[in-house]
Design brief:
The structure holds 2 protein chains of 2 kinds. Chain A has 28 helices and 28 strands. By secondary structure, chain A is of the alpha+beta class. In chain A, a hairpin with a 4-residue loop joins β5 and β6. In chain A, α6 runs antiparallel to α10 and α7 packs antiparallel against α9. Classes of the chains: A alpha+beta, B mainly alpha. The interface between A and B is medium-sized, with 32 and 28 residues.
């Protein structure tokens, strides 16, 4: 090691990754790997290098290329299922491509027909990360297209159960409703303007104006506000007083009162208030309903498993849908493919990586006749196996059949707003009743007037706006920091969290391998050989790492007087050189302040320097845990064995339970038992955490890239943002205070309005002023409040 | 003052035209993807006519 790593800042022309030691040079551009270079060559062959001009290093790095990954697309049955439309000349398909990320991607993928002339047209939906392709099934086929995209490192994610149109239809209807409500609101308000200014118009005009307003209000009542009525009725059926009930009552009271006033020509009514109310409420719902369309929060085991495998029938192979596999079928699984069901190995031996299931990253060698579990990944050559359990009954899928995967948890915790409305609705109705009775005895002509005024004024529009606006702007702020929430309801769930459960591998550790660095004077080749020889004699994990690091200096020298000092280091004599290596104290190094494990080296009583093995835990983890520990308790659940227990117990507060050797099912059960006493938030990353993520109160999955594959969860957070968690949680908790403030403000308006209404003083002018002011001030309070808080927490908003 | 009624009806009609345009734009999926058209505008229709270079 002559210098601490070769200084090389060359980045890959294609993907922008650091080309560590030896960049591949091609056409004056450097590439980090062969994959990137291949894509570049492919592009330059087809004269598509303009790809590199829109953005710098737009490409994606292809981690490992699996040949025949899309072999199953030769199966016509599968293809027919995937196609949106098919005729002799034209087929249409929509593919999910998570790695779409920049304008260059759009350009390339929309010019993809230059690679394959069978492709007629391609169009990207950037926000949904989907590519719609029209192609001629005679000239090309789906397999070719998928392979082409895969080669270009735009790997399509193909699964059979894509719910296609339901969500878009819903958002379309909502857009329409908002547009129509806005139109009606604006025009009714224009017609009501003379009233606001107190201008007396001829009764002739008033007649025209009010009738036009009435006409405009009909679509608002019957179309735009229908969802409030539907939800209110559904609530009553379930014996729940939700927030939509008082809203529906308010809308009805407003409309019937206005109808009466207009028909009896006694006044202009409150149609402007009604339209404004519906308009603002719909905007609130729209904000609340916003999600990250490009991210998938609901993956189940099917998205991890191959869609189809090669089944061996006699001498031929055919691709068969995984769901159609039966017991005793002989199947072949190739390198890097995932085993879809429990099976018995038929080949001589197989290398299987169960890291997906167990979280342990060791490759197991399995002999013929042994049982293999679903979820393992085959390494090396292809193997054959006999199915012993259908996919739906294998060990791993049993987890998903667990009751915690049935979608009942969503309704378990009533939202804050519904809790408030449970008290709110009866109180308002009671006030209306009492006011009605009072006026019945005082002045019976005013009863209807007062009762309807009470219901109108008490309509909780401000109340119903505070939560959606605050929650959605909190969610947006977190999204800017790469913490993506499934929906605003997740924020309310986080308020209840008392315990945070961490997974180890990939969550609190970084996925890249630990780095080893030399600090000290330059070592000669001979010295490196000495160090290698000595360290390879010890089985201590640290010496193992040093010897791995110096592997290229392998020699056959012999160590004399080899001694191992437990917990301190090793020493020995090689060719008359006395070498000591180990902890700084043992060797006699006086430096302290190391940021990792240190192996100091001493040859012939000269301190040469030390190897620094960097902590593979995320930087800032300790600070993060320290700032979280006042409000939360922790648990660590790891699929690994306990060799890291010492380091971990230094990181976590003393009383933290550190639980090792956990199978996915153990994790699930541990979470379940924790959930009985307190609400937990589970932070994990792999398929092995999927059960735990689903059964806990709030599941957080950690991803390294926005396009990485994450198990079903409530939150997706990028790995490098994890240490910001304390800030995020503070923001989330403070958003609750904003909502409560919003509630208080809106209650104040209601109290003022109600007392005026009960006293019989409410006039159209007061109602027209009071209602929009209360709505607008609550909306402003919510959005500006979140902005102010994020500013104070030094988060950008 | 009768003109006021006509004016209001005319203005409502114009507003209605815009409402119909809005409904049409929603129905024809123009709100489905609001990001990519903004980027697509930067690309030339035929990026370099040298496409035939290889075919020759």
């Amino acid at each position: 090691m002559s210098s601490p790593a070769i200084k090389n800042n060359t980045t890959c022309y294609h993907c922008g990754e650091d080309c560590n030691s030896e960049p591949l040079l091609h056409n004056d551009h450097s590439f980090c790997c062969f994959g990137c270079q291949t894509v570049f060559e492919l592009l330059s062959e087809n004269d598509l290098c303009e790809y590199y001009t829109f953005e710098n290093n737009p490409g994606n790095q292809l981690s490992h290329f699996i040949k025949d990954k899309y072999l199953f697309l030769d199966n016509q049955e599968i293809v027919d299922h995937l196609l949106d439309f098919k005729s002799d000349q034209l087929a249409k398909i929509t593919l999910n491509i998570p790695s779409i990320h920049c304008s260059s991607c759009i350009w390339l993928l929309e010019n993809i027909s230059r690679f394959d002339h069978g492709i007629i047209h391609s169009k990207i939906n950037f926000s949904k990360k989907k590519l719609a392709i029209d192609f001629n099934p005679i000239e090309t086929n789906l397999r070719n297209i998928a392979d082409l995209l895969y080669q270009l490192s735009y790997e399509p994610e193909i699964s059979l159960d894509q719910n296609k149109n339901s969500i878009t239809d819903k958002s379309k209807t909502r857009n329409l409703k908002i547009g129509i409500a806005g139109f009606c609101f604006g025009n009714i308000m224009l017609l009501a303007f003379p009233d606001y200014l107190g201008i007396e118009l001829d009764s002739e005009f008033i007649g025209y104006f009010t009738y036009i307003s009435l006409g405009l209000s009909l679509p608002v009542l019957f179309y735009c506000s229908s969802e409030f009525f539907i939800s209110a009725i559904a609530g009553i059926r379930k014996k729940l007083l939700n927030i939509d009930l008082p809203i529906a009552i308010g809308i009805l009271a407003l409309f019937s009162r206005s109808l009466y006033e207009i028909l009896s020509q006694s006044g202009p009514g409150y149609l402007d208030s009604m339209a404004a109310l519906v308009f603002f409420l719909l905007i609130g719902r729209w904000l609340q309903g916003k999600t990250y369309e490009g991210l998938t929060f609901d993956r189940n085991f099917k998205s991890y498993f191959p869609l189809a495998v090669q089944k061996i029938v006699g001498l031929t192979k055919e691709s068969t849908l995984v769901s159609k596999l039966e017991i005793n079928d002989l199947i072949e699984i190739r390198n890097e493919e995932i085993i879809p069901c429990d099976a018995i190995l038929m080949s001589k031996k197989a290398l299987i990586d169960y890291s997906f299931v167990s979280g342990e990253s060791e490759v197991n060698e399995i002999q013929e006749g042994a049982k293999i579990y679903a979820g393992g990944r085959i390494k090396g050559s292809a193997v054959q196996m006999t199915v012993i359990k259908p996919v739906s009954q294998s060990y791993l899928t049993q987890l998903w059949n667990h009751t915690s995967f049935e979608d009942s948890t969503e309704q378990n915790s009533p939202l804050l707003i519904d809790k408030v409305s449970q008290y709110f609705t009866p109180i308002v109705l009671l006030i209306a009743l009492i006011a009605g009775i009072y006026w019945f005895f005082t002045d019976s002509s005013k009863v209807l007037f007062v009762v309807s005024s009470v219901l109108i004024v008490a309509c909780p529009c401000a109340l119903a706006l505070a939560a959606p606006f605050t929650l959605s702007s909190t969610m947006n702020t977190l999204g800017l920091h790469n913490m993506y929430l499934k929906g605003t309801h997740v924020i309310e769930k986080i308020w209840q969290v008392k315990r945070i459960v961490f997974d180890k591998t990939g969550t609190i550790t970084t996925p890249s391998n630990e780095k080893i660095e030399w600090h000290g004077r330059a070592l000669s080749k001979f010295e490196k050989e000495l160090i290698y020889t000595l360290s390879s004699n010890s089985v201590h994990p640290l010496s193992q790492q040093v010897s791995n690091h110096l592997q290229e200096n392998k020699t056959d020298r012999i160590v004399l007087q080899f001694k191992e000092f437990k917990g301190q280091g090793i020493s020995g004599t090689i060719e008359r050189c006395h070498i000591k290596m180990g902890s700084p104290d043992f060797v006699g190094l006086t430096d302290s302040n190391f940021t990792g494990s240190v192996i100091a080296i001493n040859i012939n009583e000269e301190n040469l320097g030390y190897f620094l093995i960097k902590n593979k835990y995320r930087d800032g983890l300790h600070t993060m845990l320290n700032s979280l520990k006042t409000n939360y308790s922790f648990t660590l659940l790891s699929g690994d064995n306990n060799h890291e227990a010492n380091n971990l117990s230094k990181l976590f507060p003393k009383e933290t339970p550190l639980i090792f050797d956990q199978s996915p099912e153990d994790k699930l059960n541990t979470i379940k038992s924790l959930e009985t006493t307190e609400s937990t938030m589970m932070i994990g990353d792999g398929l092995n955490d999927a059960g735990a993520l689903k059964s806990c109160h709030v599941g957080v999955s950690v991803a390294e890239h926005r396009s990485s594959f994450t198990p079903a969860s409530d939150i997706i957070i990028l790995g490098d943002q994890l240490i910001q968690l304390p800030k995020f949680l503070t923001l989330i908790h403070q958003s609750r205070k904003i909502i409560v403030t919003g509630f208080i403000v809106s209650f104040l308006y209601n109290i003022i309005g109600l007392s005026l209404a009960v006293a019989g003083f409410i006039t159209p002018v007061i109602a027209a002023i009071l209602m929009p002011i209360s709505s607008i001030s609550v909306v402003a309070l919510s959005t500006l409040g979140v902005k102010y808080l994020s500013h104070r927490l030094k988060l950008k908003a | 003052m009768k003109i006021l009624v006509i004016l209001i009806i005319v203005s409502l009609m114009i507003a209605l035209v815009f409402l119909v345009l809005f409904i049409w734009s929603v129905k024809s999926d123009q709100y489905e993807d609001t990001d990519s058209p903004a980027m697509r505008i930067f690309y030339d229709d035929k990026p370099r006519s040298a496409n035939s270079k290889k075919d020759k």
